[in-house]
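Per reviewer request, we include the raw input and output of the structure prediction for the construct analysed in the revised manuscript.
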Amino acid sequence: MALNIVSPGKEKSLLERMQALGVREQDIEEQFVRSSGAGGQKVNKASSCVVLHHGPTGVRVKCQQERSQALNRFLARRILLDKIETKLKGAESAEQQEIARIRRQKRKRSRRAKLKLLADKRHQAEKKSSRAAVRPEHYAD
């Protein structure tokens, strides 16, 4: 009894994405190896880890996320396409945009920006200090 693990819709979208990126199935070299790590006898006996190598771009991917070889084949192809897309599109890819956003966040503030920030803090502190002190109401007789 063969179980189709990946839905036909997901397989179709994967094939469409492969066509869009110009990746052909015959350019992908596929190997099955034994997984490493926890999993006991299942991991030691079955070759459920999938290694893909895309010849034209030289991208190599290894996937052993799931216990099922079929599911790992699908996931490995998805990861491979992500890496190829990043390589081809460069700065346009979503991953590169995310990396650039984090880099901008971590960048040191300029001297001018620091001075403006400190001026705003001083202004806020002056506003607060000019307010009347809060008095407890314990005069109830």
